[in-house]
Predict the 3D structure of the following.
Amino acid sequence: MTPKNLKRRMGYAFFAFFHALIILTSCKKDSTTLPAGTLSATNSLSTSAVVSGGMGTILREEWANVTGNDVVNIPVNSTPTSTSQLTSLEGPQNHGNNYGDRIRGYIYPPTNGNYTFWIAGDDAGELWLSTDSNPANKVKIASMLSWTNYREWNKFASQKSVSMPLLANHKYYIEVLHKQGQGGDNISVQWRLPSSKLETPIPGSRLSPFNTTSSSSSSASSSSSSISYTASGAINLTGAHDLTISGKSIAGGSVPAICLTNCYNIHITNCKLYNSSDVGVNLYNCKNITIDYNYFTNVSTGVYVDQTSQGGIIVDNNQFLNMVGPYPRGQFVQFNTVSGANNSISNNKGVNILGQSSPEDAISLYQSNGTPSSPIMIANNWIMGGGPSNSGGGIMLGDNGGSYLTATGNILVNPGEYGMAIAGGDHNTITNNTIYGKSQYFTNVGIYVNSINGYTVTNATVTNNAVNFFNASNYNNNCWLAPGDSTPTGWNSNSWGANINESVLPATFLTYK
């Protein structure tokens, strides 16, 4: 069954040019004086910001004279007997008996892509990884309940993690728990890079030690109860760099709440951006901008990034409620002619309530291009609600062209007319996503792939997705491949009509107000 409406953004090229002229004039005509304390110089970006890599060591904490063979016996809430720094993610061998140790710090993936981890040790061990730099968000990804030989990676199935998408040069909290009873002892962690290269063990060049100050700041960033906003007028910068905009509550009115033109190395974090007939954050010809831990509500589009070609645009860990459009605005995030390395839209949470919003695509990539070694990553976002647009839906890749775009690990519930799509472009990938859509008068198809407006779909991958989507006639319309388009790699490895429903997301998950 073909989609009922395949008109994509044929007017976007004209609109993008027109909108750029508006931004370059309307943003500049606002002569707002920046409130004291709005900006601060910074040498690096905290939390999930892009960083340059590891420092060469990672913290090891040891508790001596602890009996038992299980991780639960480690008294991690008490002061350790000793601490030291390791130069790789591997502890000492034949070190002693009856101790527990914890190795913790931060890991920095060298490239965008999927990583797999293994843990080996004697006697028991657990490997934990956070979705960002905050230890509170850690999850156990691999473990062993009993001993293995030194670097014996395949004795138990639990020693190997699933393949997981990570972003280049982002800072992720990592923790190893290891309990030694009697006899020989060892603990090691390796990973497989997206290039399939194994690093055994993970070297210090990918690591940095745990920092209690950074952890505290990161925890504060992830909790709305700890954020205290200061009211501010709209912020308007041209040619600015090496600054942080933090803790501001900005009602935009008729202009963007924050507008940056020709700027670089700027961090926008812990801000509330709301009540604007324009966008929350507008970037024009910028590079190395991180937008994280912000709350957007009642704006035409949350983040709009336009004509930006030098990379480093990070939109991670934000929350969005009710994008009001109108078309062609109405996205949580839209990249318009964005290119370069180290661009990502990841770990965001967004809700559009029908009747209180007028969204188009929740996340839109229009004529945007990653690189072969650093695709634009759209990873691990939670999206709930969409419609009533008869052309807008969840995540749109390759809209009128675009390349090296990867959408992975996203969860979408009732996202609109469609769930996810590739509408032209080269080397675009939809993998490991979960999409559910109930029948509504505007719903159509779960995933579709279609060459459009002369932009052919080439080298597409659509695989390992779980989709259960119902169109307006309550037909289980999970997928559509346009006639004449090549079958994407992995097309038959999806779970079409998966046994999933709205419960794949919590009924309420936004925490910012």
User: Anything to note?
Assistant: The chain has two domains: 12-38+232-501, 58-210.
